[in-house]
Amino acid sequence: MTTVSNEETRTDRLVKWAVDLKYSDIPDHVVQRTKDFFLDTLGCAIAGRNHPAVSAMVRFAAQMGPSSGKSELIDSSHNLTTSPPFASLINAAASHVVEQDDLHNRSIMHPATVIFPAALAVAQDVGANGQEFITACVVGYEVGCRVGEYLGKSHYEKFHSTATGGVIGVAAAVSHLLKLDASQTLSAVGTAGTQAAGLWQFLMDATHSKQVHTAKACFDGIFAAYSARDGLLGPRDILEGPRAMGAALVPGKASPESIDRNLGLEYAVVRSSFKWHASCRHTHPSVDALLNLMSKSGIGFDDIDSIRVPTYQAAINVLSLSGEGDTVHQSKFSMGFVLAIAAKKGQAMITDFTEEDLKDPSLRVFQKRVKMEFDAELDAHFPEKWQGTVIVTCKSGKSYRESVEFAKGDPELPLTRSEIEAKTRALASYGGIADMGTVDSLIKRAWKLEHESDVRGFVF
Amino acid sequence: MTTVSNEETRTDRLVKWAVDLKYSDIPDHVVQRTKDFFLDTLGCAIAGRNHPAVSAMVRFAAQMGPSSGKSELIDSSHNLTTSPPFASLINAAASHVVEQDDLHNRSIMHPATVIFPAALAVAQDVGANGQEFITACVVGYEVGCRVGEYLGKSHYEKFHSTATGGVIGVAAAVSHLLKLDASQTLSAVGTAGTQAAGLWQFLMDATHSKQVHTAKACFDGIFAAYSARDGLLGPRDILEGPRAMGAALVPGKASPESIDRNLGLEYAVVRSSFKWHASCRHTHPSVDALLNLMSKSGIGFDDIDSIRVPTYQAAINVLSLSGEGDTVHQSKFSMGFVLAIAAKKGQAMITDFTEEDLKDPSLRVFQKRVKMEFDAELDAHFPEKWQGTVIVTCKSGKSYRESVEFAKGDPELPLTRSEIEAKTRALASYGGIADMGTVDSLIKRAWKLEHESDVRGFVF
């Protein structure tokens, strides 16, 4: 009747891989992409710094945390340094505000906004160098995204996988920085998993849980790893056990093979996508298809009568929750509004979504004439591929169809370094940073991160 | 296509009741029972203070939290005062170690171990008096237990309801102490609910998540309430919304009427049970039945050949997870071992479960001859009634059957004040407190809690 088997589980194998990973094992293109996403995250954090959720967390940290510490806020204007969980709480909330952080397609997760803030705060706490930081981030991406893939798209119907997979990735990344052994890391992962939470309900009323989820994934994963170091034991098979995440959070529908397939042969970091447009990632393929179509056909905003958008179920689910988009944030979750912005402005960058736009009747009329429809073929490929199709009917009666297999920023179409730099400057500018000298020096430092002796001072 | 309805939800009604409750509204017997459970919790916390999970959390608080604060650890030996989330983290972990804290039968929750530590830490932070503290605790019990009942027994199959319902109760109790209005409290409750987590997986390998769950329910609920005060918006219908707790954590099986039925007419505090025995609460009715049977029939430990224990499914689920009980903690989750202890020692108090007992062959042989079996009738009444039946076959061939409708400590059979005092002294003694003068003065202060001008100094 013994219940603890000594057989190696997939969770064991994943943890063993994470513990053993060394910087020298990581292919150069993975290192380079990790730096791309790190810089991208810094930009996102500064762009989102004034959101009320971030302000509430700054206040929580100031009131409940230490009066100073080794971990920094990416937004230095608060003059607050603190302990790792509080610093990452704030940085993770801030970097998930403007919907410009990355997306790991297959897991439907945004790994950057949880992995980098947590690893940065802890790397600062323990004095890790650039290579150690990069290694921990690669571990965090890999473990987090594999858990997200394991939980899969039916989990994503109710749960914000960025949080539920993310907390495990954070625990693994932080464990690596703390140099925990496999047994301790398994405990950290287990304790992280039993805290996994994050529901989509907030989309119904435009409330602030999206930032709570990324923030708390950091806090809770850091708690899990430091506590594991200090003797707190976590359940050994928090993924596949009979009362574990798979069984409880996505009964009967998890994908166990995702946990340990091709470990060390594939890297989640290079399967993650940049966000180029400032809207919900589910709108991006359709935006690209529409912009391509308009460019090819020469039609303009005013020529368009209506648009049909065949898409996969997850897009319909998420994009149906925000109504017409009463706030700027909600408007980025309306397929109709996002396509209206893109069609009218020729792009959908962060500066293209404003309070004034919410009141623009031409956008609102256009928005109403966009209809999503379920497409079984696109759905069958999701989330392996995030494809987009638009079928545009013009006022002239003419009709056009355009599809994209990949969106700009997808692993198959990544941003170039100069595009990432431009995006970073735009994000900083949106966040109210006037001094582009600071931004340029952060960019320079990020590009040579593997040669940095520490990761302090990545602040605006 | 608007998604936010202005119709009053059950969650709205529950929150409105919580915000409006005044001390003068609370019937005296509810006040008295609240004090009973408060004292009981203090004893539990001191008894559990040396558990490795508690030590890891003390270290986490010392390292990540402030160097001092207004909130106290019930175990004063650490010389640490801190901020409310860290103090409650530690006190909640400690008070859930020895399995002697209360049980709210219908929700299958242990409310005391989350509500009191959170409310105590916040009451100390804001300088609340005894009446304000009691009122907040009554709110926390009511809201938390109603959410636990809403989620129900199928939720409990995978989730530790003490955590998932508890975090909401904490948010409500803390909101009351912070004097938040209904809208802010709704946000606090929403933010708490989107963090709700806690899986039973740890029972499989005797790891420490049970304490993580109570500790984090406090931390997270306090985070939710303070953040709500500071402008963080939470989803408005975190219980019944389409992507909310009911839909995600117990799809199709929640009990909405539990949320707001008889609000202000029934009180969860007086529907909660004391734990008299030191084992998993699911074993208590069977222990009582066995002790009654042995007392009536005059048979002793050595006379018993085997025992059949008809019981409800939730007991079988939880008690099947800990194997034979390789640790003292696990042994309290083995029906066979617990009945063996009770039969041999005539009781199953905290001092009756020792490392030596784990190696006692007579107990191990007895343990193996106890078999639980599913009983449809007992199951139909659970969790309204936690009934117990044992069918004992003696070595002589004679067989006996005994049932109890309620266990000692149930609302129908509550402990007396002198029993509570005796239990508190036993818990303190188990926790290594030699000075019974301190214990006696805490007991005295607890009995006149409603006349206290503050709730500081409830420490051993």
UniProtKB/TrEMBL annotation, chains A, B:
This is Uncharacterized protein. Residues 277-447 form the MmgE/PrpD C-terminal domain. It comes from Penicillium olsonii. Belongs to the PrpD family. It comes from the Eukaryota. One of its GO terms (molecular function) is lyase activity. InterPro entries: MmgE/PrpD_sf, MmgE/PrpD_sf_1, MmgE/PrpD_sf_2, MmgE_PrpD, MmgE_PrpD_C, MmgE_PrpD_N. Residues 13-253 form the MmgE/PrpD N-terminal domain. It holds the Pfam family MmgE_PrpD_N.
